[in-house]
Amino acid sequence: MAADVLRALTARHRTVVVDAGRGEVPDAATHVVLVVPLTVPGLAGALAWRAVRTGAPVGAVEPVELVVTCGPAPGRLAPDDVATALDIPVAAHVGRVRGARAAVERGDGPPVGHGTALRRAAERVLDVAVARVDR
């Protein structure tokens, strides 16, 4: 059923964004955005996901963009460290988003209004994706 929904969406819309969670990435995906916390466990999870997804060494499948998120984490990694380890460029970086956790718990979703960090990151990722498609 999910495949039918994706086919219908892609038939009517140029851009469809799907949160695949830890599951399978749809075959119709032209770009994959991997969201990685700036922590050692976050990086380990991203490396494991890529290994399962590609079945090949890191960096073997393109196009993959990388959005790095960070919250308050002692000893956190730098975005460049994560990009180097995954061999994927950082498309955008989102720092701590004040009030996001409470908004999600209320069912409002994260703040994405004009000028917010998440909106700027999403716009940057879309710009990178469109630039790659237009090449």
From TrEMBL:
Name of the featured protein: Uncharacterized protein
